[in-house]
Amino acid sequence: MNILTVNTGSSSVRLAVFSQKGGRQERVAYAHLKTGDNEPENQLTAFIEDNHVRDISVTAHRIVHGGTRFKDSCLINPGVEKEIDRLSILAPLHNPPALKWISICRRFFGSGIRQVAVFDTAFYSRLPESSLTYALPKDLCRRHEIQRYGFHGIAHSAMLRRWREIRPDVKESERLISLQLGAGCSVTAVKNGTAIDTSMGFSPVEGLVMATRSGDLDPGVIIYLQKSAGLSVEEIDELLNNSSGLLGVSGISSDMKTLLGSDEPDAGIAIELYCYRAKKYIGAYAAALGGVD
Hints:
There is one protein chain. The chain is an alpha+beta fold. The chain has helices at 40-50, 78-86, 95-109, 129-132, 138-144, 153-166, 219-229, 233-242, 245-250, 256-260, 265-289; strands at residues 2-8, 12-21, 24-34, 56-63, 74-75, 114-119, 175-181, 185-191, 194-198. The mean pLDDT is 94.
């Protein structure tokens, strides 16, 4: 049986095919493609033909935002697609492209193809109330679905599985801190296989300093910028997501390799801030877990 995985990002898509035989999986094809320059239909056709892939039985799609409904992976049906679409307001850069690829795969492989949604937020669907709740009026949060959702859950759950392979001897009171460090960065605290806290919250902006995202910020700064600088909601969204983080502090680049090779003082400050924020979160989660294995 061959499984096609589709990992859609805001500017790229990762396609892979895994062959499953006797309970083991082997990756037989992979591509990391930029979106925008080519239609997804053409990208999928070229990927399948170039890798001589046949007999795709299942497609598995990474869905960034599953809201409060999806606590596990599930088969995709019209109701699931409708809910993913409704949640696009919370993940406008990720959920719509994922829906597009679901539709493309259905046309390409036929309406009978089994498609599975794998949610980034599912790993955090069982966070304790103290971790998922913001200190805002409860009725307001319930009405607008405001809570801490967490992201990068697929990566953090994979790290948990790998940790268990490396250290099968640690079984009692398993305490783990995992970090996903890329353009987007997050840290998660896991106890006995369950996430108890994570740095990303309602959106992927919260938490660590990232390549172009600010991470934790006093919300008063946003109000001040609206009043004093006259920035619109759209301009602030652009500022927090695309002009901050390593890029904003250094004024040079969002790439850590470039900053490490620079002699500019602001590059050093950006790196120091990045590392310091990560260290603070590790310390906080060590306290929350009551120690770390």
